[in-house]
Amino acid sequence: MDCLINNAIAGVLDYGQVMDCLKNYKAPHRKITTMLAKGELIRVKKGLYVLGEHYRTEPICRELLANLIFGPSYISQEFALSFYGMIPERVELVTSMTTKRNKQFTTPVGNFQYTYINTSRYTVGIDWLAVRKNFHILIASPEKALIDTISRYRDVTTQADMLDLLFEDLRIDESMLSHLDHDRCQKIAKNYRHPTVTLLVTTLQELS
Fold first, then answer.
1. What is the mean pLDDT of residues 59-86?
2. Domain extents in the chain
3. Per DSSP, what are the bridge partners of residue 66?
4. Which of 41, 165, 172, 190 is the most buried (most CB within 10 A)?
5. What is the CATH code of the structural domain delimited by 2-55?
6. DSSP string for 71-102
7. What residues are paired with 4 via a beta bridge?
């Protein structure tokens, strides 16, 4: 276990790391099965594991898991808005965007949802964010997280509609909007070419 604990990043291990730690066993696959049965390891999905609760030296980072479970992907939408403190609710479903098909994973450590986004929209506005001293995560910037969320709505056609969506439906913290980078919003919106996103950018400019 010491090898697994020392090599885990936020309690997370991939298949290669586990096999490397068990290389001296005659039957490493059988050892993995035993460790899973004892709760020493937990399988998140094929080839991806987390340490059992009693062996973790730090909490599991679901944001890191989201990047690893299905990719290419970045964390966005409501989970990212909650991560940045832009909405009051704690969001349990970890929401991400991907250039692959829509996908959802139910795992022993949480549920993860991936929504398709085309490549031209994917590439702009993502941050490589240091979460703890030993790793980073790929996550939408606050601007992109808001735009990814807003872009789902097609029946928002006026600024009054947009304000209702932002403050009544999504319950966005209005004070947080003043910290958004409007130039970055415009750059992201240019790639999206989406009427609701364009309306969002115009509304944000008038609120500032």
1. 96
2. 2-55, 62-207
3. none
4. 41
5. 1.10.10
6. SSEEE-HHHHHHHTTSSSSPP-SEEEEESS--
7. none
